[in-house]
Each structure stands twice: as C-alpha cells, then as structure tokens.
Amino acid sequence: MRLATFNVENMFERATIMNLSTWEEGGQVLEDFAALSDLIQKQQYLQNDKDKILEIMKRHKGLLTTGETKHIRLNEIRGRLLKKRRNAPVEIGVNGRDDWIGWFELKRETIKEAAIENTARVIGEVNGDVFCMVEVENRIVANRFNDTVIPKVGGQKYDHVMLIDGNDDRGIDVGVMTRQSFDIKSIVSHVDDTDAQGRIFSRDCVEYEIITPLGNRLLVLVNHFKSKGFGSQQENDAKRKRQSKRVREIYEKRLNEGFEFIAVAGDLNDTPDREPLQPLLGDGSNLIDIMQHPDFTGDGREGTHGNGTKNGKLDYILMSPQLASRVRAGGIERRGVWGGKNGDLFAHFPQIKTAKDAASDHAALWAELDL
User: pTM score, two decimals?
Assistant: First the structure.
C-alpha cells in the first residue's frame, strides 16, 4: 500500500490574504481580523471596546463605509453594528453581542483552473491508497474535487473522503482520502485540546484508524502546525513546540494501547533541527522520517517546500519503528511546484506554464508499505 501527504494549498478557493506578496502584509490583516472577531463576541461592549473596533476598521479602507475591503467583509444579519448618520462620524450602534447578529469574515477568491487541475495531477501521479490532505477548504469541497477534477485529468477518484473542520478561519483544514479496500474505522479530533496556555492546535491533529486489505490497523495522525509567517517567531516557535509535544503524547498513548503501525503526516512548518520539533524528532523519540529511511529515493534536495532547500523541509511522514520496518520504497513528487524564479530549477508538469499554474508550493511525499 502507499501512504502519501500533500499540502494542496486549497482546492477551489483561498482566502485573499494568503496570496499577498509578503507574510507581513497578510499577517497584519489576519491579526486585525482576529481582533475584530474577538471583540464582537463580548457580551457587553465598553467604550474602550467600541473605540478599538472603530480604530481597527478604519485601518481597512471601505470597511466603515461599505462593510467590505479586498480581504475582510462585515456581515450584518439582524441589527447593525455600525450607526451611520449624515455629517456625523460612524459609531458603534450596539452595546453587546445580544443586540445584533453578524460577523466578520475573510474574503475568498477562486484559484486558477490550471492550478486546480495540476493539484489533481499531483494526487493522480502519487496515487496513494491513503492520501493525507493539508489546507483543504472543507469536506464538501474535497468531495467535489474528488468527483470532478481528479477524473478530468485521468486520475482515479477515491472511495472515501473525510475531513473535520478545524480551528482556522481561513478554511485550511486537514483530511484524508482512501481507496475502497482501506476502510476508515474510527476518527478522533483534537480541536479542543488545551494546555496551560490555551488551545493547542492551529488546525487539528486528526487521528484516522484505517484497516488495510490485509487486516492491519494503520493509525495516521494528520497535522498542520502553526506557520512561521504570521506573528512573532518566538510566539510561533512556542506554539509549534506545544503542538509537537501534544502529538508526541498522543503517539505514545496509542503505542501503549497496542497500536504498532502509526504515522504522523502533514505540514509541520519547521525543519528537523529546530527546537519546536524536538519533542517529535529529538532525543528519546523513535519516530522515523520517510526522507531519512534507507529505502527513500530523493532527488538531491533536502526540502519539501519551494525550491527544496534544507530550510524548506516542512512536510513529513514520520513512522513508528514497526511501520518503518514495513517500508519498501519512498519518494517525493515535486512536479507540481514552480521551482526558481523562472520555473527551471527542476522539472514540472508541462501544463504548468507560469508560477500561478503551480499546484502548490509544497511537494508531495509518499511511502510504499508492506501492510
């Protein structure tokens, strides 16, 4: 059987802020969006809260006047958050959450058709029996992609598609697709896991127990850790370390419960040598990265993101010793990525004519297992 993971970077639509030219630019919008969303949830709006809402909204041209900017939209369903009078400054017209129904949302844009089809080509070429997906909008979208786009480019559609909405407002969830003979026996979500600092997972760490045709139990923990892009590096590193620690705890618990074949798969958003991933990859861990397995065939590039440099090693299939002992081959599918400024750093699909046609900035990883 073949186990694979791929950060698809959304299948049909993507929050517009994720396509801005710099992390800093998108990060400010995301921080303001999060602050607005938190402020309007308060039962009582003190004057300081009202002033803060207006202050943030003023930073985004159009939000106070039309309720919409390039990246954020205000939805008012019943009642009005804003009070507007002729020749007078805009005010907050309600005194708390119970006075109105509405919310702020991130605007989305449709992904280019060529990029959508090239995402399907990566999935078809990898052809995993158990295929882990990172940054998927929702299960309905994943189903539609599976039903229409994968067959359109000559791939074989999957029989089971499962995804649980996670904690990210941008619609970047984690899920799995499996072939008919690889039944999903159980699903455990960790969206509500907390520690002393609060909620742990930026998206989720979903456990999928899958029964293989030979009757073996494969447990896959699909993850997408906190990115490096938004907020301070110190805070982001601390968040990823908390996530690594919790995944390690889940992994150890399942080993003690009798699971032998366990994989931690997905985008961990950091390199193996850095502190945030040491709970999973440091001293005392017995997890084995497919890219470090003797039966893995690479292309001379250590990374999985962008140009494949060492600093771009973000994607992983980590395996328990018993699972690693069943590896027969492993590889990386990089042809969906636009490598280098001119796209000539390494081979890509002929259907990728420009950087915007690329399936993703991430390569897909796979492991062939005797399971």
Answer: 0.85
Tens digits of residue pLDDT in 204-224: 999 999 999 999 999 999 999
Is 254 a member of any domain?
yes
Instruction: Using DSSP bridges, classify how beta strands 327-333 and 364-369 pair: parallel, antiparallel or unpaired.
Output: antiparallel
Low-confidence ranges of the chain (pLDDT < 50): none
Co-location of 206 and 132 in the same domain: yes
Both structure tokens of 274: 């850095």
CB atoms closer than 10 angstroms to residue 133: 26
Choosing from 58, 85, 108, the residue where a domain stops is 108
Do 290 and 218 fall into the same domain? Answer: yes
* Domain limits for position 71: 23-108
